[in-house]
Write a structure and sequence with these properties.
Number of domains: 1
Distance between the termini: 43 Å
CATH superfamily: Capsule assembly protein Wzi
Radius of gyration: 21 Å
Structural class: mainly beta
Number of helices: 4
Length: about 450
Amino acid sequence: MRTDRLLRRMGVVAAALNACAAWAAPPVDWLLERHRSLAQGRGVPSAVAQSAPVFDGVRGWAGANHRLSGPVLDAGATGIGLRAVRTLADDGDGWRVRLGAALSNVRAGTGLPRLSLEGTEVSRVLGPGRLYMSQERRHWGPAWVGSLVLDGATPPLAALGWRKGDDRAFESRWLSWLGPWSADLFVGGLAAHRQPERPWLVGMRVTVQPARGLELGLSRTMQWGGKGRDESLGSFARALVGRDNYDPGNRALEPGNQLAGYDIRYGVHWPSGWSAAVYGQAIGEDEAGHMPYKFLVTAGAEAGGRWASARHFGLPGATWRVFAEWSDTGMKHAYSAHQPGAYRHHMFAQGYTHHGQVLGHPVGGDAELRSVGAIVDSARASVVMALHRGRALPGAQLHRPGAELRGAALALMVPLGGARVGAAWNRWRHDSQRDDFAQLWMDWAW
């Protein structure tokens, strides 16, 4: 079967799902799941770190029906809506079938549809991982506020792929030294692109843990094809080997737009329950000599522990975590002369986006953001908070160049009988403009 014909048939599946993808910001329960894993001294398993946690039940929410131009805390959706996920089969050695659906209202003119199939997954064991078809969000990298390459704020993407969802090490004596490892490879369809229509997103990520507390990650994404562009096997092969920088006179042969880079996290966990870590991510917006180039960067540090005096606040056994993070999404700005244009490309007029939202850091291209945050988690209540401050660089994607950026966010979740109730408030300021986002939500498990 010809490559372009096969892709068109795959596109029917992706389009059917993406035609009803809803916008979502980094959900509070995702941050809490990650914190709990670290608090237990287990590190961050790939299933928690790289894809959204699965909640088998119903979630209803009410709040603002628009999106902010920066990182926010929320329930993973906007407006007023209802989402349900039901696992029909989950054979550890065979099939997994999970159905998800959501309906919400969003502000007119945003380009965001109202129906979502987020949480839907059909997968089958293949080798050490699973071959899957799903609609979900991914967060690639160690940062809490934003990933530079594929962020949890991105709308759920309908994709076909293969994922190793556990952290078992290689059995081969030649590769076992790499330690626990994970991988995710997928091809999905991007929505709300007009020039060209219906491009593809190819994603590849591998993580290894060669030493206790040390995790290394390699990530690569590629916008490719689209209506009217070459979608042949040869074009795809050229993109995979990095032959996608052509002279301006030969741009018709250029197969796609790629981002690639590295991340590292090193953490220690003491028997007392205290922990600390440093982390960083560098993603190249271009390539030179078949290596990433023109880097966007993130650096951060975190510490956590158990709140010994929590009983005085009515939170017995609470764990806590604080973090500080700095991100610079200007190409080369962190270490050399700034070159505007991050998350944009001459072949894809809508840029590195899905449903009009940046696939990378929520602050958008060509901005600098410093963030501090804290998490307190107990059986009685969970609190997540964050403060942001930064500036828009020349050529900024989402803000007026030179604008001062400020943000604040607070979210609370508490159990209520057999349910969970959550509330969030976010404020984002750029120059003299102020935008607020508030939300309430409730979960019921099946």
